TrEMBL record:
Superkingdom: Bacteria
Organism phylogeny: Bacteria, Pseudomonadati, Pseudomonadota, Alphaproteobacteria, Rhodobacterales
Name of the molecule in the record: Fatty acid hydroxylase superfamily protein
Pfam families reported in the protein's UniProt record: FA_hydroxylase
Subcellular location, record wording: Membrane
One Gene Ontology term from the biological process aspect of the record: lipid biosynthetic process
Main location: membrane
Xref: InterPro entries: Fatty_acid_hydroxylase (IPR006694), Sterol_Desaturase_Related (IPR050307)
Record GO cellular component, one term: membrane
Amino acid sequence: MSDPISKDWNYHPDLPLADGSIFKWPPKPGFLARWFARNWLSLSERVIMVLLAVAIWLWIYPDFADAKTIQAGWIFQVWLANFALVALCAGTLHWYFFMRKGQGSELKFDKRDMARGNKLWKFSNQVHDNMFWSLTSGVGVLTAFTVLTMWLMANGYTPVITPLSNPIWFALSLILLPIWSAFHFYWVHRLLHVPFLYTHVHSLHHRNVNVGPWSGLSMHPVEHLLYISSLCIHWIIPSDPILVIFHVIYLGPGAAMSHTGYEDLLIKDKRRLALGTFYHQLHHRYYECNYGNQEMPWDRWFGTFHNGTPEDTVETRARKKRMYS
């Protein structure tokens, strides 16, 4: 007998989805050790982001002293760096997966390609529409928060550390920032699904039922403000420019990676880099579910978890009907 859920997807992992939260209770030391090793003791996407953040701070971003005063020169330098980060990440992923077809349909969730010839999208083209919102409002708001954070740090208005002066807190911050971002994203995302905000703001992002790399940062400017406000944590806790840039990469290029539409990058038939998750792909398909990500337990705790099965699809659709009735 065929699996009915498989008819809706090109690929999906084993279902129902397992509990991937690091906040399982009671704690499972073996699971936590494997999670830590996978994310921080291998060449994972997070380790790559840290290495990239160090390189950008040393050779691309303006000198910290320049940020003490608001001047067009260094602000443009930050904007250009952020523009290049988003464009190169999303553009390279789109070229490899959707233009070159470098992986074919292996590990691709949705059967469809990117939409064309539909007036739903600016320029009647999903990719061009996504590029427009990502590279204008997305990069603009990301740069505004980055510039303000750098200015606050340079002028001593926020607590500043260095990797040498506070190595333990620096290392701990690298681990905690993605967890903080997931916490922040869940609650902002729930807010954006309030009917008024969904209709006037978040629906722009949700036009991407079938996602691609350029979909990740394709949002309404109000949503960009809410989503990227995650960076405000650096205004409160002791931080370092490398931590800020890591966070910027996680929110900007990281969104392109998580919306690639493929679960992993395959090299010689081996999974080498984690990309999208079926967890979030279900949200783009069914809307009122899986507002967070797999590392945080909020969807399970608050009854909005979709485990990928037909039964959960029925429940999710019923919840959506109740919300918008």
